[in-house]
Structure formats: C-alpha cells, structure tokens
Please model this.
Amino acid sequence: MSATAGTLHHRAINTIRTLAMDAVQAANSGHPGAPMGAAPLAYALWTRFLRHNPADPAWPDRDRFVLSAGHASMLLYALLHLTGYDLPLEELKRFRQWGSRTPGHPERGLTPGVEATTGPLGSGVANAVGMASAERMLAARFNRPGHAVVDHRTWALVSDGDLMEGVAAEAVSLAGALGLGKLTLLYDDNGITIDGGTGLAFAEDVGERFRACGWHVQRIDGHDLDAIDAAIRAALAEEERPSLIAAATEIAHGSPNKAGTAAAHGAALGAEEVRLTKEALGWPVEPAFHVPDDALAEFRAALNEGAARQDDWRERLDAWAREHPDAAAEWRRVTAGELPDGWDAHVPTFTAEETPAMATRQASGKVLNALAAALPELVGGSADLASSTNTYLAGLGDFGRESPDGRNLRFGVREHAMGGVLNGIALHGGLIPFGGTFLVFSDWMRGAMRLGAIMGCRAVCVFTHDSIGVGEDGPTHQPIEHLMALRAIPGLTVIRPADANETAAAWKVALERDGPTALALTRQSAPVIEKAACARAGVARGAYALDGDPARTPDVILIATGSEVALARAAAVRLEERGLAARVVSMPSWELFAAQPRDYRDEVLPPGVAARLVVEAGVSLGWERYAGDRGEIMGIDRFGASAPGAEMMARHGFTAGAVAERAAALVERLRAEGAGNP
Model:
C-alpha cells in the first residue's frame, strides 16, 4: 500500500486533500487542516476495511463510521462523494451554503452516509460507544449458531480536541469496562488545536490513559499506509478490548507554509497557499475540485464490493429466517422501529384504593418493568442511581463483557457519556434506550440531549428528584431552573406527570415518539388521581382540565404540574367553599400542548378567563405564556435549602391553603380592576 509520489494510492489520498482545500476555499470558511492530515487514515479504512454499501446507507449490518472530529467534515463529504453515496460533486462545491447537503459539521438525516450529527467535541466518541453496545446487544438477541446476522464494527475518527473533552473520557472508561472489542478509534494525533500546539494544555500520555482504561493501543505514523494497514488488521484481531490507533499526523500535510500550524485548523488556506500546496503535491492548480479518473475508480469499487457484501448478508439473513421465523419477524419489527401490536395493554393502571399515594419515580419503575416483557428492545440504566431512579429492569441482567444479553446498562457516575451513549444506541437502530439520573444533573447531560434533539433520537431520559421536595440534600441537589432549561431545547418533549397514572401515560407517549423525551419525576409521594383514562388522553395532549364544571366559566384557573397538581386540587376545594368556581388544569407537557389545535387549547384555557394562577416548584420564567398578562405565577426564583421535603415545600408557600389564598386574592384584584371574567 505504498503511497509514494505518482502511485494510485498517492493520487487517491491527494484527491481527498484537494477536495477539502477547494471546498473550504470556495466557502472561505471551514477546517482544511484535519482532512489533509488524516486523509491516509481515512483512505485506508474506507477502501480496505469499512464494510458498507454506498447504494444503501441504511443497510442494517453495515459498519458504522462516526466522524467525532466533526470540524473535519470535508473529509467525510469527500469520502462519501468518492465512494458513491448520493452526494454529487456539486454539493461539495456548495460546502457550508444555505440548502446544501454539506453543512459545516456533519448532520445525520441531511447527508446520506452520515451516522451521527457531530461537532461538539467528544460527543461522537460516546455515540460510537453506544453504537458498539447496540451491535453487541442485538447480536446476542438475534444471532444463532451458524447464523450471524448482526456482525459489524464501529469506527470513529477522533481528534486531540475530542480526547480533551470530559464526555470522551467518560465514554472511553465505560467502553473499556464493557470490553467492546468491535469498537476502534482512529486518533488523528496532529498536535494542533485552535489556539496552537496541544502542549499548551494537553500534556498527558493518551496511549497510557487508554491502556489504563482497558483498551488495546497502538502508535503509528499516520502517513505510512503500510503501518495504518497493519494497525487496523491488529485491531480487527483484538476481540476482547476496544482499540485505539494513535496515528501521528501533520495538520495540513502538503501545505508549504501552513502545514503543522494552527493557521490551518479553522480557516481557509487562502488562494495563494492552495496554489502552492497543489504544486507541492504535483496536482493541477486548475480546475478546482479535480478528481482523477483512476482515483475515482479506486474509491467507487466500494459500490460493487458493498453490493456483494450486502447480497451475501441477505442470503444469510434468508437462511436464518427460514430456520428461525419468529426471530426474523421480531428482527423486521425492531429494525423498522415499530412497536408490537397490543404492547400498550401492558401499561398499568393505578387506583387510589390500592395505592393511595406513590412517588412518580416509583410509578415509573413499575411501568418500566411492566413494559419490559412486551418490549424486548427496551434497554437502559442509570448513572449509578438505579435504586433511586427506579430504572432497573428486574431479572433481565446487566449488559457487560460476559453478559451481552443483559438489558440493564450500568453507566457509572457518567451522566454526559450516558446521554451520548443513549443517542448512539438510538442512532444504531433496533433498540429503545433509556437512562436515569436526578433532574439537577440534567445539566451534565445537556450537551448530549441537545444533540439528541437535533437528530431526533428516540431515547428516554428519566429524571427523578424533580424539585425542592428532594429535601435534606439541599440546594446543590434541588432543581430550580432545570425544567425551564429542558423546555428551552427545541425538539425535546418534557413531561412532568402529576401522579402514577399520568406517569404511565407519559411512558406511553415517550415510547410512541420518534424523538427524545425527558420525564421529570418526584421523590415524594403524590396522591393517585382516580381518572386514569382521563390522564392518558390528557397527557398525550399536554394539558387537560382535571377538575371543574366544564359547562361553567370558571372564576379562576389553577394550572399546575407534577406534585403541585394535588395542591391545586385541594386549593380548588377551598375556593369552592368560598363560592369561587375553580378549574384545575394539569399541564404535564408544554410541547405536547403547544402542538394541539387552537380550539382544544382554548377549551382547556378559555381566553376570556384572565384569572390564572400557575403553580410549579421551579423558576417562574416562561410561565407568562400561560398565566397571561393578568395572571400570576407561584414559582421559586431562588435556590433551596437543606430541610425535610415537606417543610421545604411549606416554607416556599406550596400548601393548599397558600394556593387558595393566592388564587382568591387574584380574583379579588382583577374584579377590583374591572378585569374579571365576562
């Protein structure tokens, strides 16, 4: 595989380099250096080892390739175009332009062949760990002796910046503990970041760190094709440990004046330097975006090879299906992302007679375990909090090195990696992942959740201990701003159920959605509302009138979420005793409610009723949209304190009596102002 000047390998590698240079120069924006330096690594992997079919980017048994170093997007776009994916050269010429399929960082669902949306460094490492975990789980479930229908690898190209990020460190540690032997990271070790050499802030021995985490580690010259080839083969032979190939490369290799410098990291080389670089590489200066015929043919061999591999897999799949028709039917269902018929019959219903009160985290655990048998694709765990978040699937084992069929994921104290791994499992397909931690630690997961929302990952984040009702742990563990912070993420559906039945309904909504869902659940008990059918329908619509005469215009509307719904209901009784008609609206999800038709929203919250009191134990910011100009908000715009949960709620005014007094005063004020209800 010599890449000496004039060889086909040399021309193919320089094709990647010059496409990256030309695209970044045309846009006058981007990162040319990394694609130029990592081109030999990418060329060797994509033309010799990667099992994929450019004609079918969704082939279930393809290898997954994640460009965790998302700033090097032109490396991936060049590879996708050259190997025959539906990415014409014109799209490379429109790099970073409005409406193109070559955005600044790779976006899944926009560009054929892009497995994950990357750019925030380190996230792709965690995604790759999730994908490798999903492959092992599905292989354990569906493969049979003599039939390996799930048998592929996960590769990721990572940068110095990726490996500086904490999320990558968490994911690397987890992957080593799990022994993910089909995961390989190719480390583009060019020693340069935006500010200069990595030595400014990165002095560790990366290889030794990975070895300490249980990885198989190799160090090579990243410009030596023979060394790259041998290292990848060694990684393929290693079955017990994930592999790191640390490849020493030169950023902007070939550029006379910018190679090895930070100037080539995040800006176009400049027209003159592009000319000089092409001359140094023995490349035609014009036309731009030149692709030699023989180099293109070398890359396009992936089409025939990929088709042959997929045809072989189809034959093996058919043979397996004939012997195992039930498993084959399940395979078709889960790979299509479909839920089985009648699955929701397993969603439990709770009665006040049998269960007067229950923490919604406890109800969630009961729902989750009831659904586990009906949904074998449901897998997940927690950040070392299974007993607190009630996210353990009883009797279904722990996923690990020796137990690939386990459905419980032990993430350890690694919230950020957990979020990225959940995304990776969801992106892989065939499984529905969930992960649990305390709501206050959603801060640790926010980056991964945002990316999951961008990609539409079907994952469920289970957040418990959802308010100052946590109690004695104090302000560090009492979420205040977190519900609003989650509601601010576009594409994320946040549900804060009021009781056990709303919790069951929330799980049903979460599992039926295509995108991510966050459940906010209580530590403290909440009374079970004897309106299960109403709750299921109401949660699916985001908000509903729980109490109050629907035929009568209320004097005041009490809007509440979570455990505060019970306070609102008790306050409504006191208001009725005063002769005030109160409507209680449970609003577990802003996002679901906002998606309803205007008629329904006006039915729940009549526009003519100005007296609206919102009751939620969190920041008041944002609730103005539902309280209206004349309404009021009972929230918490300060941090909590250390005291028992019930006392915390009472001292912050969250009692039935306080809610009733506030509502009555609101009605009196509006009547005095002449702004009462018609």
Summary: The mean pLDDT is 96. The first helix runs from residue 8 to 27. The radius of gyration is 28 Å. The first strand starts at residue 64 and ends at 67.
